[in-house]
């Protein structure tokens, strides 16, 4: 099982830099990198809420599941 974080796609659609996004969400650019690179083990709902509010999107626009072996 793999959860893919599509933050790059959403940031590109909005022309937003990682620094701007991190400041708007209230987390460090280093933690944004952890999310983008798929190294995060968990995401708090409050963080997911801030991400969706900032990007004006749904959680499914940022997170997707792909089965093993895909």
UniProtKB/TrEMBL annotation:
Spans through the membrane: none
Organism superkingdom: Bacteria
Residue stretches making up the HTH cro/C1-type domain: 13-62
Record-level Gene Ontology MF annotations: DNA binding
Pfam families referenced in this protein's UniProt entry, alphabetically: HTH_26
Protein's name according to its UniProt entry: Transcriptional regulator
Organism of derivation: Saccharopolyspora elongata
